[in-house]
Amino acid sequence: MDSLIARASRGGYVDPNWPFPGGKNDAPVIIYGYTPSFALAVLGVILFALFFAVHIFQLLRHRSWYFTTFSVGLLFEIIGYIARTLSSKVNPYNLIFFILQYFFIVTAPVFLAAGIYTILSALINRLGREFSVLPPKVILWFFITSDAIATITQIAGAALIGVKQSKRQDPTTANNILLGGLAYQVFSIGLFIILTAVFLVRARRHVKGSGLGTFVAAFSVATLLVYLRTVFRLAETAEGLGGNLSTKEVYFGTLEFAPVVLAVLLFTVWHPGRCVGRRISTGDDGKGNMA
Questions:
Q1: Burial of residue 168 (number of CB atoms within 10 Å: 0-12, 13-18, 19+)
Q2: Is residue 68 within 8 Å of residue 58, measured between CB atoms?
Q3: Which of 76, 94, 194, 217 could form a disulfide with 108 if both were Cys (CB 3.0 to 4.6 A apart)?
Q4: Is-contact 229 108, C-beta < 8 A?
Q5: Count of other CB atoms within 10 angstroms of residue 60
Q6: Closest CA to 239 of 189, 177, 176, 187
Q7: Eight-state DSSP code of residue 243
Q8: How confident is the model over 95-108, as pLDDT tens digits?
Q9: First to last CA, the chain
């Protein structure tokens, strides 16, 4: 027990009400730094499952295929919170449960951000290309490429962290890879926010006249919420596993769970397929054709 307490003090946690099971896939300490809340985990599964069903329905109804990646992100969230539920109720020491929830919850917002990026191109096409700093085609493909880079890097980093944890090896290098992916995502979303703000300021009169004011407000708030969550994950990853941000569930609940739920809720109520249109245009024909 003394050795377990010593390891716990270096970034792990031993639940006094949940003795170490000693299974093959069990870590000697709870890597979370706490025993995950069952209520929060179940709430995550329920909410994201409901959001997923509604978004799939709206995706099919409005045929807004450009927003498909948003549903992929929601599916990732569901899987992640199912694994977190297993951690909280079945065995918080189990490495497989921890790895699955970590991988899917960390990478899910990358797909959510990909959906958000396409909305700006749809708005540019709807409100007027003369208000945009860059052509919608350049914006769309730059951020699609950026999202692909962030996705690949974060998936690789998160997966390697899982491998290192399962082998009881130092995950520092893997953590740095994930850190790089998150840092690039913070940069790309930050740049996206700047371009979006400039466009919306220039097109503010057309926004009011088009009846898109409420949607634009929801879109702006949702984007900032995803950005807040990404900044939190960057700070958490910079500290490393066992840091203050990763070992206090209150930070997870308020800076990971809540911002993503609120962002998804906004796009559930104001779905871009219904509010903006079915297609995004990157060509020059002005007819709303997908390029």
A1: exposed
A2: no
A3: 76
A4: no
A5: 11
A6: 176
A7: S
A8: 899 989 988 998 89
A9: 63
* Class of residue 210 by CB neighbours under 10 A (exposed 0-12, middle 13-18, buried 19+): middle
- Number of C-beta neighbours around residue 146 at 10 A: 20
The residue type found at 132 is S
Residue spans of alpha helices (H) in 90-212 = 95-127, 136-166, 172-202, 204-210
How much is the pLDDT for 289?
39
- Mapped onto helix, strand or coil, the DSSP state of residue 94 is strand
What residue type is assigned to position 84 of the chain?
A: R
Number of other residues whose CB lies within 10 A of the CB of residue 17: 5
Phi, then psi, of 94 in degrees rounded to 5: -70, 125
How is residue 21 annotated by DSSP? -
Query: What CA–CA distance (Å, rounded) separates 12 from 20?
Result: 12
Q: What is the mean pLDDT of the chain?
A: 86
Domain annotation for the chain: domains and CATH numbers: 2-275 (1.20.1070)
| Cα 289 to Cα 195: distance, rounded to the nearest angstrom | 23
Q: Which tokens hold the place of 5?
A: 């307490």
Q: Which amino acid is at 202?
A: R
Q: 């941000």: which residue's tokens? A: 245
- Indicate left, alpha or beta for 242 from its phi (over 0: left) and psi (-120 to 50: alpha): left
pTM of the model: 0.86
Nearest to 206 by CA among 122, 117, 123: 123
d(CA 129, CA 127): 7
